[in-house]
Design brief:
The protein has one helix at residues 93-97, and strands at residues 5-6, 13-15, 26-34, 47-56, 61-62, 66-72, 75-83, 86-91, 103-111, 117-125. Strand 6 (66-72) and strand 7 form a beta hairpin. The two termini are 36 Å apart. The chain has 137 residues and is mostly beta strands. The protein has 1 helix and 10 strands.
Amino acid sequence: MSSDKINPIAGPYELGSGGGGGGSVTEMTLEEVKIPKSISSTATTCPVTFKWTSTKGTNKNPTGNGTAFFFLGNDLMKTSPNISQGTVTIDIIDVIKNSSLSSNEITLKVVDAYNNFLQLKFTITTIAIELKSNFVT
């Protein structure tokens, strides 16, 4: 992988509610995303850590737990439901193991209890190294 820390998404974002009235405003943040700089083909874990929040109304009441989705390209590879707000660590080794030998775009999408969401895309590069020898032992 090419990065240890991804710059936070500039937030908070104000996500307006539907309808014609002056509904409550939801603010979401997704930040402090950390991924390993490199991982071997024999690795059994690949933790991704991020911090997220979602609040609603002028009192900024937390909206509750949410769901994290990980996409490899356009394919949904992992769903982590019922994640608490704050700092979260999720193992995505199953996503990494399905990546192809090249650059792979991974999308982290966090959805709150009101179906508001933020997403962040990052790229991992998967390579294979092979050593061959003509020496006879």
